[in-house]
Amino acid sequence: MKKSIALLFSFLLSCIKMNQRLLNLPIAINASRSKYKIGWKSSLKIAIFLLLFNCNTHLNAQQTFVFKLPFPQQYVFIDKIIDTLTLGDPKLALQRMKQLELQAQATNNELVILNYKRSEIRYRYIRTIGDEKRPELNQLIKDTEQLIASFNEQQYPVVAALLHFQIGNSLDYQKFNYKEQFKHYLKAYDLFKNIPLTQFPYRYYSQYAIALAYYRFEEYEKAIAMGKEVEALFPKKDFNSILTVNLIGLSFLELKKYNQASASFEWILKNNKYALSPKAWQGISLCNLGSVCYSDGNNSKAIHYFEQGIPLLKQEAVLGNLASASLLMAKIYILQKNGKAAKRYLNIVAELTDKINSQDFSYDRNKVLSDYYQLEGNSKLSLFHLRLATVYKDSLNVSTNLNKKHKAEINFEKEKNKLVLDQIENKLINQRIIGSILFLFTALFLITLYIFYDRSKLKLKMEQKVLLAKNNSITSELEMAYLKLDEYTQRLIHKDLENTINTSNDTQAKESIVNQLVNESSLYTDDDWAEFRGLFEKAYPGYLSQVKEKLSKISITELRFIAVHKLNLSTNEMALILHISADAVRKSKKRLSLKITQNLNQTFDEFINSLCY
Question: Do the Cβ atoms of 169 and 124 come closer than 8 Å?
Fold first, then answer.
């Protein structure tokens, strides 16, 4: 049982690896390729789905499921299916492609149908590039251009960008056409950079492809700039960072900036855990560090790195990198006159010769073999390989010259565009001058307004100071009035109390006086009232006038009672000032409260508190 589960899991992992094929763009020195990053859970789902897909000839349910997926997951799943179909029987693959087409059309969704048509072109591309059939590639490019022309690129930018990317890759296999490739790569880039990462998180690959194309066409500064832009867009480190940092390091190596190149490869060596194949990338980074040391003239250190990296590349079957590293090791040992050690690495290269189809590799291999046989004293074989190297070099020069021609055409177009831009710039300068004049007049007008505002503000501040001074003066006067009124009131209280005590020596006399005060309505003199009223109206201006206004029939005695009550005196103190008993004070308040309630529908306290002063 455990063995069966292990075999099933191994098969699922094989499905995942089998479906990690890309658009055939090299990522380092012919290192392994990858397009999308899928989490292990998603990878497991994909593997299970593909297992069902490969095991069942009636796949309507599964195919329907694919086109029900949201974007961008649908892009990923459909490409995985395409990758799987390209590995199987072509006739069976075409039947299943037809089923996919019918399922896509059944959705009546324009984006789904376009995505299927894009995937069909991708299928044809993968089937074609194996044999490099130029007529088929030409037809594929035409069909892709027609598909792009059939819909609005701005409405479906992801599909359009992927199709432009596809044309660029087709041109790459058809011929090294710098001008046409870049036209489509840059178009894909312009579309991708305006697509939010949340909508299509895989757009990083377009930017990476531009950087890679710059590298391949020897525009290393631009490759570094684009690579850094890609890294800035995706701060979270993953296997894409490995690809991009490696490309940046290779560009620095070509520019002979060895410190920066070493820093890039050392970063990969420390962070190879992010790669899909950590051991493979460990070997790649070690050999790249060896290349830096070799280029910088430090052969002993280069050997140290190569001896660690080459076994890993061999173990992980990273053939391109293995061949390049082995050639460099052979070169070093030839320089050291160690033919035996050089032969050991040339044997590794010989085993890989039929598996690597590259003019650059063929030139380097024959040049090293020429040097080796010269070291061994075999002039005939040395001359033979030197002539072969010359043939490959001439072929490389033709491609280089063609690319230089395309670069010159692009630079000429850039110069034409620059002239147009200069004319536009001159117009903009004139507009800026006019704008500056308008700005100056506007600024003068605003300064004038500010001066006027500032003066008005200053005037208001002065007026506020005057009002504040007046207010302070009034406050001081009120405080003085309160003080004088309080002093006068206290004096009246003490005076009346003394007069009462002095004129009454016995209890009977005091009771007689109290009875007399109770029976009389008031014992105030007119002079006392006049002086009291004057002080009261200073402390509470307008208060008594409001009382009269609200109670037109109020008597002078009631008015005096209200005035004394306003002073918040105790009942006994009010009795002394009014020359009546405490009981008379309470009765007077009760009578007055009744009068106020009948006339104003208010209580006595509500009436007193409602008056302003």
Answer: no
Residues with Cβ within 8 Å of residue 237, at least 6 apart in sequence: 271, 274
What are the b/e assignments for 408-445, b being 16+ CB within 10 Å?
Answer: eeeeeeeeeeeeeeeeeeeeeeeeeeeeeeeeeeeeee
Task: Give dist(CA 66, CA 357) in Å, integer.
Answer: 37
Distance CA 135, CA 125 (A): 12
Region of 542 on the Ramachandran plot (φ > 0 left; ψ -120 to 50 alpha; else beta) = left
Q: How far is CA 70 from CA 125, 159, 195, in A?
A: 25, 14, 16
Residue pair 112/74 in contact (Cβ under 8 Å)? The answer is yes
Q: Give CA 25 to chain center in angstroms.
A: 29
Classify burial at 121, counting beta carbons within 10 Å of its beta carbon; exposed 0-12, middle 13-18, buried 19 or more: buried
Place of tokens 């036209």: 183
User: What is the number of residues in the chain?
Assistant: 613
**Is-contact 590 603, C-beta < 8 A?**
no
Mean pLDDT by 10 residues, the chain (613 residues): 34 35 32 36 47 45 70 83 85 89 91 92 82 74 93 91 87 66 83 79 74 84 89 79 92 95 94 89 95 94 94 92 92 92 92 81 88 90 86 63 49 52 72 82 83 77 68 58 64 56 46 39 62 80 86 84 83 81 86 85 83 73
Using a 10 angstrom Cβ sphere, with 0-12 exposed, 13-18 middle and 19 or more buried, the burial of residue 541 is middle
Residue ranges with strand state E in 183-327: none
User: Cα–Cα distance between 195 and 435 in angstroms, integer?
Assistant: 35
Question: What is the per-residue pLDDT for 20?
Answer: 35
Distances (CA, A) of 348 to 191, 311, 318, 341: 44, 11, 13, 12
Distances in Å between the alpha carbon of 498 and those of 158, 377, 424, 487, 583?
Answer: 107, 148, 105, 16, 20
Contact present, 140 and 128 (Cβ < 8 Å): yes
Interhelix angle 110-129/157-174, rounded to 10 degrees, is 10
Closest CA to 216 of 27, 411, 354: 27
The structure tokens listed for 361 are 């590799």
Nearest to 210 by CA among 198, 197, 225, 194: 225
Which tokens belong to 271?
Answer: 């962070």
Q: Are 287 and 267 in contact (CB under 8 A)?
A: no
Answer left, alpha or beta for residue 297, where phi above 0 means left and psi between -120 and 50 means alpha.
Answer: left
Q: What is the residue whose two structure tokens read 């405080």?
A: 479
- Rounded CA-CA distance 363/396 in Å is 9
DSSP-derived secondary structure for 322-383: HHHHHHHHHHHHHHTT-HHHHHHHHHHHHHHGGG---HHHHHHHHHHHHHHHHHTT-HHHHH
Q: For 44-58, give the DSSP string.
A: HHHHHHHHHHHH-S-
* Residue 169, SS3 per DSSP: helix
List C-alpha distances in Å: 100 to 96, 507, 523.
Answer: 6, 126, 118
Q: Of 407, 409, 339, 421, which is closest to residue 372 (Cα–Cα)?
A: 339
Torsion sign over Cα 545, 549, 551, 552: positive
Report how far residue 83's alpha carbon sits from residue 14's, in angstroms, rounded to the nearest whole number. 13
d(CA 287, CA 547): 107
Burial of 234: CB neighbours in 10 Å, binned 0-12, 13-18, 19+ = middle
